[in-house]
Structures are given as structure tokens and as C-alpha cells.
Design brief:
By secondary structure, the protein is α+β, with helices and mostly antiparallel strands. The chain is built from five helices and 13 strands. The strands form four sheets. A five-stranded antiparallel β-sheet has the order 3-2-1-6-7. A three-stranded antiparallel β-sheet has the order 8-12-13. A hairpin with a 2-residue loop joins strand 4 and strand 5.
């Protein structure tokens, strides 16, 4: 039976390896799929793209979820459809923190960003959500590639302050897809959306 997966985040896990966080429309849940770069985009064929729904022939499920067979993008969500989805699916950050499943993903709504900064070559964000201050590394490939480009130009600090002001604009909402892997005690922002 074919499955439809809405791609919400792509974060790099190795040189050419990525975690793709998707919403499985059949089972109404978030899933993480580890894919090689060629399984996401190959030549001119894009198979997984943020905000797009990818139809796959089947999902192999067990300890890991993996798409089997042909895959293609069927349609894309509009900015408003994505915002409505995130508003509906967002949870309190405390629910994410106390959940002790081995692997956990959650969508949270960010109240305000206190600081975007780089420590030990990694982009981090201090933010408030549900009255709780948080500090997480950002592994969203779009933000990571942006930082790498501006580190080369020595304009990063100025740009990060501009982005902090932009995401704090009350006309739009900021959402994060948080990822946690208990076995290795790691947590990070897998996707960051300003809608």
C-alpha cells in the first residue's frame, strides 16, 4: 500500500547521510528516515523536499523506517497549509523533554528567540517556548549551509542578529522540530520554520 509522507525537516547526520523527518499521513505520526544524499535528490529528481508530500510504494517498519520502491513528490503544501499543520501538531516542550522513548520528535512553537550564536563551529539557538528557556544546536541543513556560507564572508554575527529580529516578528510564527535520541543522550533542532 502506498504511503504519503510530508517532509518537515532534513538534518545532516554524516558527510552524505541525512535524517529526514516526515509526517506519515496514514498513521498520523512523525517518522525519521535516514537517507543518503542520492536518495533525497539525484540528478534533477528531487524525492524529498521540505513542505512537499512524497508518495512511496511502501514503508519498511521495524527499529527504523525506510521507504521501499518508487517514490515521487505528488504535491506541495502552501505556506498557510504548513502553518496550519504546525499549529495543529505543536506540543508543549515539557512533553518532549519528559518523554523517555528511545527516539522522539516533537513540533514546538517558539515564543521568542533570545540569541542565535555559534559555539565550537555549531549554530545554536537560545529561545523561549511555553515559559521555558531552552538552548539547542540547530542541524537543519538550510540553516547550517547558510552559516557556513556567511562564516566564509565574516558577516555571520551581523546576519545572525538580523535573523533573530526577523524570527521574533510577531506577524509570523516560528516552529521547531526537535529530535531526541535517548541512547546517546542527544537533542537538537532538526527543522526550523518561520511561517
Amino acid at each position: 500500500m502506498s504511503r504519503k509522507l510530508l517532509t518537515l525537516a532534513i538534518s545532516q547526520s554524516g558527510e552524505d547521510e541525512f535524517f529526514v523527518i516526515c509526517y506519515d499521513e496514514l498513521k498520523c505520526r512523525l517518522v525519521s528516515i535516514e537517507l543518503h544524499r542520492d536518495e533525497i535528490i539525484k540528478h534533477d529528481n528531487v524525492y524529498f523536499d521540505i513542505g512537499a508530500v512524497t508518495e512511496v510504494e511502501n514503508l519498511r517498519e521495524g527499529d527504523f523506517v525506510y521507504p521501499v520502491g518508487a517514490r515521487s513528490i505528488t504535491h506541495r503544501y502552501s505556506r498557510q497549509q504548513l502553518k496550519d499543520f504546525f499549529d495543529r501538531e505543536a506540543v508543549n516542550i515539557e512533553a518532549f523533554k519528559i518523554n523517555r522513548n528511545v527516539e522522539k520528535f516533537s513540533i514546538i512553537k517558539i515564543t521568542s528567540v533570545h540569541e542565535l550564536y555559534v559555539r565550537t563551529g555549531k549554530l545554536r539557538m537560545k529561545f523561549w517556548s511555553n515559559g521555558v528557556r531552552n538552548d539547542y544546536i540547530i542541524k537543519d541543513v538550510r540553516w547550517v549551509s547558510y552559516v557556513e556560507r556567511h562564516l566564509m564572508k565574516n558577516s555571520l554575527l551581523e546576519r545572525l542578529d538580523d535573523y533573530k529580529n526577523l524570527v521574533n516578528n510577531k506577524q509570523k510564527s516560528t516552529f521547531a522540530i526537535l529530535y531526541k535520541y535517548e541512547k546517546y543522550n542527544v537533542e537538537w533542532i532538526a527543522g526550523l520554520h518561520w511561517l
